[in-house]
Each structure stands twice: as structure tokens, then as C-alpha cells.
């Protein structure tokens, strides 16, 4: 039995869960999410706890069992607490700023790079203008937007300049060896 799949998902106060067949809707203070799961997993809501079960041990059903439970947990956590991805900017003259809700990046191009947040996502720039927070209730979208921001100027291996995740380690390379006399 899947170790992840058999764990129950507790629904905190203030979060509404609606299960209709294979469709799950979760509504909370941060937002509303819905997802349709494959019919190989069954979801039940009892006493504020969601349980996910499967009918057999076929490989696809086993794979979907843990995946469905993880997605349900991310939905519940997202609408109740939200998700945050933090990025750092490294490099001389590199910085970020907010203009209304738009994130403006100055990362070595001849023009500033502007990024409009999609629905349910917000940006926050730290006081030093070198830290960016991407916040939202959908874990997949938060990670995707953070990856797109990082993709505007990924960290390079020689000086380490660029945009990186807060906990990311950039592997550094040695530069030119110089001429021996």
C-alpha cells in the first residue's frame, strides 16, 4: 500500500470540500481550486478528513493513489495557507522593483523586463530589491511563475550572476587558466 496515499488529509476550519464522483472542489480563504482525478481512485470525506483509496494493486492505480493524495493535500494547504517561492538576484546593478502589481527586473539587458502576475499570484520585492517572493494558492502555478522569472536570467557558473532560488546552490567553474611563462 502506498505510504503517501494511505495518509489522511485533514481539512482545517474555514475550508469547504465538495466531492462529486471524481471531481474535487476545495474553497478556502485564499481562493478556490478544483481538479478532476482519474476514476481509479476513490475519495471520501468523513469528519473533516479526506481518505483516498484504490480498488486493486495494478501499477497505474498504485501510482495514481499517492499522486492523488499529494494533489489533494496541496489543494487544501494552498487554499488555507498558500505557497511561497523565494528568489534571489545576484550581480552588480541587478535589481527588481514593483510598479503597481507588475514586477520589473533590471538584469543586464538594454531594457527592463516586466512580468505581469496571472490570476491568483502576487509578487513581493524585499527591501534590498534583490529578493523576490512569488505567492499564491496553486502550488503548480507558483512554481511555474518562479521558474519563468528565473529563466529571464539564470545563474551563470563563472561569476554566479543571475536569478536563483533562495536555497539553490550554483556550481561554480574556474575561469581561464592564464599563460604560464
Written account of the structure:
The chain has 181 residues and is of the alpha+beta class. The protein has helices at 59-80, 139-152, and strands at 9-10, 16-20, 23-27, 32-36, 41-46, 49-54, 83-90, 95-99, 102-106, 113-115, 121-125, 131-136, 162-165. The chain folds into two domains: 9-80, Ribosomal protein L6 (Outer Surface Protein A, domain 3, Alpha-Beta Complex); 83-165, Ribosomal protein L6 (Outer Surface Protein A, domain 3, Alpha-Beta Complex), CATH 3.90.930.12. The chain has two helices and 13 strands. The protein has a four-stranded antiparallel beta sheet with strand order 11-12-7-13, with helices on one face. A three-stranded antiparallel beta sheet has the order 1-6-5. A three-stranded antiparallel beta sheet has the order 2-3-4, with helices on one face. Strand 11 and strand 12 (131-136) form a beta hairpin. The mean pLDDT is 92.
